[in-house]
Design brief:
By secondary structure, this protein is of the alpha/beta class. The protein has one domain: 3-Layer(aba) Sandwich (Rossmann fold). The protein contains 14 helices and 8 strands. The chain has an 8-stranded mixed β-sheet, with helices on both faces. It is globular. It starts with 8 loop residues before the first helix and ends in a 6-residue tail after the last helix. Bound molecules: adenosine-5'-diphosphate and magnesium ion (MG). Adenosine-5'-diphosphate binds next to α3, β7 and α12.
């Protein structure tokens, strides 16, 4: 039995079923989205895993490319270190093609290229390579054709790994934690995006900015959220991901929160986010 048939109907009524009824867009090929922010601990991996799972839940074929040497996205969807065969390091440095590196995850409809520890050496090894910013794009080639969405989980730095992601991607999705220096970090990130657009990838778009770990009891959260919306307007998703202990428990069970506790506020927020992403990608006329 598919896990999705076990999903309590009511909890998904307003999102998943709406989305499933949406007319499918014409097949534009895979949409490659880098989930990036140079700050650590802001919810990149959590967003990559749970957005990917929510998209898979509405019948999208999804791939995560784990580009963080910590490999948290791989662990978080149940791909243990001992089961990681070919990884993103081999794609970047060893000439391995995407189709050879892909593995199934615990989540139906969601595949992954896992990350191993040796990815931490890739930054240095890339420095001396020709076309060092393009290695991920080259390795992906046309190997992502079978997918609707490819999410790249970036490491917490604006080094060569993240640069490879931004060159390979068509769009960037930025998780932003509502804290004091958030805006400063965001403007630095967006300057990098501009440079990438000018030099390497003129097509790169900003899919959106998602506010994460929002704590409604904290006035600062509100203030930062208001500032971010004032500066970035519609680029900020309406959906806000609340701070929710179930979200942080899920990875230790090797599951996305959507499979750990579908009804909790965090899981529901990621379903709403998926709905917004799909709308922005033209899945429904709004
Ligand atoms: N909405 C949330 N509620 C509670 N904890 C969260 C939430 N989102 C992320 N976390 C936790 O915060 C930590 C950092 O999140 P993570 O996604 O790993 O950030 P990043 O990939 O940007 O470093 C993790 O322990 C994660 O489980
Ligand atoms: Mg991470």
């Amino acid at each position: 039995m598919s896990i999705w048939t076990k999903v309590p109907k009511k909890s998904m009524e307003s999102t998943v079923e709406d989305i499933m009824d949406m007319p499918a867009p014409e097949d534009k090929g895979p949409r490659i989205i880098a989930v990036a922010n140079q700050k650590g601990g802001v919810g990149k991996t959590t967003t990559a895993i749970n957005l990917a799972t929510a998209l898979a839940a509405v019948k999208q074929k999804v791939l995560i490319i784990d580009l963080d040497p910590q490999g948290n996205a791989s662990t978080g969807i149940g791909v243990d270190r001992k089961n990681r065969r070919l990884d993103t390091y081999r794609m970047l440095i060893g000439g391995t093609k995407l189709s050879d590196a892909v593995q199934k995850s615990n989540v139906p409809g969601l595949d992954i290229v896992p990350a191993g520890m040796d990815l931490s050496g890739a930054e240095l090894e890339l420095v001396g390579m020709d076309n060092r910013e393009h290695q991920l794009k080259i390795a992906i080639g046309d190997g992502a054709q079978g997918y609707d969405y490819v999410l790249i989980d970036c490491p917490p730095a604006l080094g060569l790994l993240t640069l490879n992601a931004l060159v390979a991607a068509q769009a960037i999705l930025v998780p932003l934690q509502c804290e004091f220096f958030a805006l400063e970090g965001l403007s630095h990130l967006l300057k990098t995006v501009e440079r990438v657009q000018q030099v390497f990838n003129p097509e790169l778009e900003i899919q959106g900015i998602v506010l994460t770990m929002f704590d409604k009891r904290n006035n600062l959260s509100d203030q930062v959220a208001a500032d971010v919306r004032e500066y970035f307007g519609d680029k900020v998703y309406k959906t806000v991901i609340p701070r929710n202990v179930r979200v942080s428990e899920a990875p230790s069970h090797g599951r996305p929160v959507l499979m750990y506790d579908m009804k909790c506020a965090g899981a529901q927020a990621y379903l709403h986010l998926a709905g917004e992403v799909l709308r922005r990608e033209g899945h429904v006329s709004v």
